[in-house]
């Protein structure tokens, strides 16, 4: 058995597909490449491909990560070349590394930080955006009301919960190198996390009332654990 960890992109062409559809695209590419993929046992076997974290619809990624289990040994150059050649538009293979025996840990259990960039529309000026960043960072807390559909006995009701967005940030918001871009390092833990769109909506409610939240483009830059890229952990 061989396991490869891969670093792939999710580009603009794939922005509005679900995580399940994205995973299916990768699995179809693995089959087209003729790679000896491993499958689970049982009545409904599925390919043994595990992702670090699911991405929401409408989010692109400079680096998404998946572990691919194979039944036979195969060298890294052959694996990389075969898979790269058949990936669909909007999905590029950046790196592939074999996970050595005894060092294969679930990425879900390892990831503690997700770095996102949020591209604000041009009708928000650079001065407005910088002032918003400064006010947000200066605030000791920022409460956001999360709404979700109730389940079980509460089915049909909207459940509201107040959360402090700032407790889920690993560092202060910063301006990106490109115009109108804000960087947010979000904590990922068993206690929960927040979504970039929740940060955007909180900024709209508190500082940017004219902002169209849906016009902000969200891109995940990377996932890390203990300050290290997931590819550097193997």
From TrEMBL:
Residues 4-186 form the DUF2344 domain. InterPro entries: DUF2344. This is Radical SAM-linked protein. It holds the Pfam family DUF2344. It comes from Pectinatus cerevisiiphilus.
